[in-house]
Amino acid sequence: MTFQEQITQGIPSVLPQPKPYETNINHAPKRKEILSEEEKKLALRNALRYFEPKHHAELIPEFKEELEKYGRIYMYRLRPDYRMYARPISEYPGKSEQAKAIMLMIQNNLDYAVAQHPHELITYGGNGAVFSNWAQYLLTMKYLSEMTDEQTLVMYSGHPMGLFPSHKDAPRVVVTNGMMIPNYSRPDDWEKFNALGVTQYGQMTAGSYMYIGPQGIVHGTTITVLNGFRKIKKNPSGSLFVTSGLGGMSGAQPKAGTIAGCVTVCAEVNPKITKIRHEQGWIHEVVEDINELVVRVRKALENKEVVSIAYLGNIVDVWEKFDTENLHIDLGSDQTSLHNPWAGGYYPVEISFEAANEMMANNPEQFKIEVQKTLRRHAAAINKHTAKGTYFFDYGNAFLLEASRAGADVMAENPTLGREFKYPSYVQDIMGPMCFDYGFGPFRWVCCSGNPDDLAKTDKIACDVLEEMKKSSPAEIQQQMADNIQWIKGAQENKLVVGSQARILYADAEGRTKIAEAFNQAIARGEIGYVVLGRDHHDVSGTDSPYRETSNIYDGSRFTSDMAIQNVIGDSFRGATWVSIHNGGGVGWGEVVNGGFGMVLDGSKDASRRLESMLFWDVNNGISRRSWARNEGAVFAIKRAMETQPLLKVTIPNLVDDALLND
Predict the structure, then answer these.
(1) Would you say the pTM of this structure is higher than 0.70?
(2) Which residues form the Urocanase C-terminal domain (predicted)?
(3) Which of 113, 251, 543, 563 could form a disulfide with 594 if both were Cys (CB 3.0 to 4.6 A apart)?
């Protein structure tokens, strides 16, 4: 069968032969056993409903074995034989160009070069899934190949509920992931209901088909690292940045450190993912001996090298060893997947990777004890360095939150609402006040042709737009404009593409709209092929997350999720091609609500109308909320937006004299 025939076939009527378990692939760890015997039968019933009854007797023992062996029913047998990657849009079968673009984006999320655990349909973060099983993937792709522009595909946590009549301006796909009743959002609830096959953790851009590989976070990390050095008034050259994690998102850290121009040490316990990042060129060197690491880092600092070094081992050993060796760390952070601490997101010190995985599956209570002991040691070592002048920030991975739950010494001496921890979130000190409040966030696009020349052309278009805008931009956003112009000029040189021909930069509503319109005009002229617009959920408006995206909201509303819900509703009727809303993201299940979108540009007047309406809302919704929280930059930004758009009228907060409150 051709690729197109396999797509339109969906779930085959004749079952393919079982596939061998490929040991050379980076697989998800075994999930802990959490289902009762009756619940295991329910999980099997739930899985078997994708198949005709004639197949049930054959599949039951196989699915039973998967559930026992891996803690989930992945349906490995149904994994396609074709190579998984983002093909040019012209290669996808279908009646809707918008639907073809979505197929392209789904396959990019599952590309072996992009996905963390591709055979388990997990893109990044240890549990950020596109689908829960391969039947869902096959059925979704079939629906997309059949869809017209008068239909909408409804996705319930990976399950394609079906195609419903709609209209051409409606989203082609509406995605929800993990939208639990609030009292059922504990980590064990995710384990249980995911094992039953009724919900999934979509992370952020994993379950919304908008992940573009580590590049998606390289830019934000580069800005964070650059501004971290600016904050401590240090030149990155000859300075040291220490962190951990080389997975889907965290793998961007060494590349960002290199672009910033410092020495980066990033620890990782998983040999497979370390090897992948080294082969991809995201890290320069791998060191396995801690004493050798000390010698290598000293030499790099003395020579002011721009180098990234992966330490294959536990980050706690690095922090402790650098303390005893009196090796000064300028910037410190952590980006292990601590939103997922008990299922492979963080590993205990002094236990091998293999032994830890075995303990995680077979003795989860002891594993939790070991993880929390490690978190206490980790925090204690960091505290020693910060006492010597290290600037440490929480990189939004729930490190401080989980460390506090473990009883680590991370709480502020005089806590205030929003400043409970002794170390700030990077959003509180850097990204929030410098970027999000002014409307700058991670705008991204994908060239549907798959042609690198198209990407180079879009880079130039975006750069030209930003340089023209900078000429008349107010002083308050000149630094943001300059950083992004520098970024886009170096994008090709830094070889950031993994998977699809994609790019990211931080832009405000004006910048996003002007860049998108310039792309649409170039498509209309036949200069480039179709373009998919999107963004990270980690943005101005898309995410309500009290310990990350909205951690610099100090009016008490950071624990509400009105903004994210309003955002996805507004995007859906203003012209998005697909929309998504998730429970759970980079900081954990039940800790965040986040949403995203995708928009296909085809060179039409309809696309111009939609992009102008939707992109303006998508940014200014968040600015208005941040303004109401009394964030100074956001008040400035929303007043400026009202000057440019007469139909925009936003309530501005009145400020209270603190002296009156203290009387």
Answers:
(1) yes
(2) 436-639
(3) 543
Q: What is the pLDDT of residue 248?
A: 65
Cα–Cα distance measured from residue 173 to residue 300, given in angstroms and rounded to the nearest whole number: 49
**What are the DSSP calls for 239-268, one per residue?**
-EEEEE--STTTTHHHHHHHHHTSEEEEEE
Domain 214-410 has CATH 2.30.110.10: no
Domain 432-539+596-660: give its CATH architecture: 3-Layer(aba) Sandwich (3.40)
**E strands of 140-201, at which residues?**
151-156, 159-165, 173-177
Distance in angstroms (rounded) separating the CA atoms of residues 607 and 605 = 5
In angstroms, what CA-CA distances link 508 with 281, 425, 568, 575?
31, 22, 18, 19
> Do the annotations mark residue 395 as ligand-binding?
yes
Is 136 annotated in some ligand binding site? no
pLDDT band of 398, cuts 50, 70, 90: confident
> Strand (E) positions, 327-466?
331-332, 391-392, 411-416, 419-421, 441-447
Domains 214-410 and 432-539+596-660 share a fold: no
pLDDT tens-place string over residues 336-383: 988 889 988 999 999 999 999 999 989 999 999 999 999 999 999 999
The verdict on whether residue 268 carries a ligand-binding annotation is yes
CA distance 263 to 299: 10
- Is residue 586 a known part of a binding site? yes
Average pLDDT over residues 215-240: 90
Residues 157, 162, 166, CA angle at the centre, nearest 5°? 110
Compute the mean pLDDT over every residue in the chain, rounded to the nearest whole number.
95
Q: What are the C-alpha distances in Å from 307 to residues 260, 455, 480, 488, 496?
A: 11, 27, 26, 21, 17
Q: Answer whether residue 490 shows pLDDT above 90.
A: no
Other residues' Cβ atoms within 10 Å of the Cβ of residue 235? 12
- Domain residue limits, the chain: 3-196, 214-410, 432-539+596-660
